[in-house]
Amino acid sequence: MSARSGLRSFALLTACSLGALTACSLGAAAHADTDEKILLKGSTTASYFWDDASGRAGDTGLPASGKPMQKGLAASPSWPLMTEGYVLYKGKKAPFFVGDRGPGVPSSRGVMLDLDAKTFAELTGGTFNSSTLGVDGVGGQGHIKVQYVITKWGPGVGKKNYPVAFSTGAWAVRDNDPAEPPKVLAEASEPAQRPAAATKPERPAEEPATEAEKPATGSATGSATGSAERPAAEAERTAEAAAGSGRAVAPAPASAPASAPAGQEESTGRPVEAASVGQAEENGGVGRTLLSGVLALAGGGLVLGIDRLRRLAKR
């Protein structure tokens, strides 16, 4: 092998290795995206707010977490502060983290999440108004039905489960027994359902026999009985005729055995043997052809190799 061909092979091998590594890394990243950890999921009614300590539009001051008001900061009546997740609304997805407490009284009516005004505008197709701290272009809509997913619980006090009203005081109690993740619950219930699905109904004890299990009766039995009785009846008639005429009557010759059906020869093995011989000959012909081809290729390769050696020797 020349140096040039060796370098070419090395470059090709390197390119293949890099391509394989790239494909593996992309596959791992895609798997990580689809295998997102889900701690809790559900649905609720969400409102919106924007507390920037300006005192406008019912502003109650800076958020309870001490974080400045920003897009993605939400308020919950019971989840721990700094809990993370996202909401889904009409095919749109928006991340959030719990940075404040609320809604207050509305949470007793089922409004369990307060989104920031900018996220609310993004989900509904409206526009955040920095002067009024409201959302324009949504016809005054202030509540939407969303699906939520929790991916990380906050470290502080609060209920690590489905949200409850602010008036319950769950937001001030440490929860050491968080909700079981939906994936864990599904895996726990799945084995209990599998045996029931895999169980097959038992066969009745007195199930009628199938056609294949029924004993051979009818025409086959009658045919065999009739064939056995026919020679005896003929012999009896011959004896009676001989006794009446006083002459010896030769018994009727035994009937020739019925000719074998068309496929009977196959049971003797002759046609099968002929087919086997033909198949062996055909396989042998194919084998000889392949062997001839291999020998021809080997001979050609040998000739080319000798010719190459001669050229190298001349150099």
Quick structural summary:
By secondary structure, this protein is of the alpha/beta class.
Strand content: 15-25%
Uncertain spans: 28-34, 207-229, 241-277
Question: Which superfamily, in CATH terms, is the homologous superfamily of the domain at 40-188?
Answer: RlpA-like domain
List SSEs in N-to-C order: HEEEEEHEEEHHHH
Question: What is the residue-mean pLDDT, rounded to a whole number?
Answer: 72
Give the total of beta strands.
8
Read across the widest sheet, the strand sequence of neighbours is 2-4-3-8-1-5
CATH topology tier name of the domain at 40-188: Barwin-like endoglucanases
Characterize the main sheet: 6 strands, mixed
CATH class of the domain at 40-188: Mainly Beta
What is the second-level CATH architecture of the domain at 40-188?
A: Beta Barrel
Give the fraction of residues assigned to helices: 40-55%
Give the N-to-C terminal Cα separation. 15 Å
Number of helices: 6
Oligomer: single chain
* Gyration radius from CA atoms, angstroms: 46 Å
What form results from the Cα inertia axes?
Answer: elongated
Question: Would you tell me the structural class of the helices and strands?
Answer: alpha/beta
Describe the overall structure.
The chain starts with a helix and ends with a helix. The protein is elongated. It has a domain of 149 residues: Barwin-like endoglucanases, CATH 2.40.40.10. About 21% of the residues have low confidence. The longest helix has 45 residues. It contains 6 helices and 8 strands. By secondary structure, the chain is an alpha/beta fold. The protein is 42% helix and 16% strand.
